[in-house]
């Protein structure tokens, strides 16, 4: 593959990542609504730790677990903020 082809492939993957993060955020909003209607608190540290553990066990590189966790912590934070607004 040449540089242009590789970049096009990255663009395609980036679009998929955006779509999946948006889908995750929509689900987080729904969870926020459910939590609000049942009086549950938004933040669930146990669940967040379980998600991060799952991410690490699924990660096969080349990004390290630390790098992957940093990315997902940011995603989780953004989704949690949406739950507060739901």
| CATH topology label | Chorismate Mutase Domain, subunit A
Number of strands: 0
**Broad structural category:** mainly alpha
Write down the secondary-structure element order: HHH
Outline, from the CA principal axes?
Answer: flat
Question: What does this 3D model show about the protein?
Answer:
The chain has 86 residues and is mainly α. The chain has a single domain, classed as Chorismate Mutase Domain, subunit A. Helices cover 83% and strands 0% of the residues. It contains 3 helices and no strands. The protein has helices at 3-38, 45-58, 65-85. Helix 1 crosses helix 3 (65-85) and helix 2 (45-58) runs antiparallel to helix 3 (65-85). The chain is flat, with a radius of gyration of 16 Å. The mean pLDDT is 97.
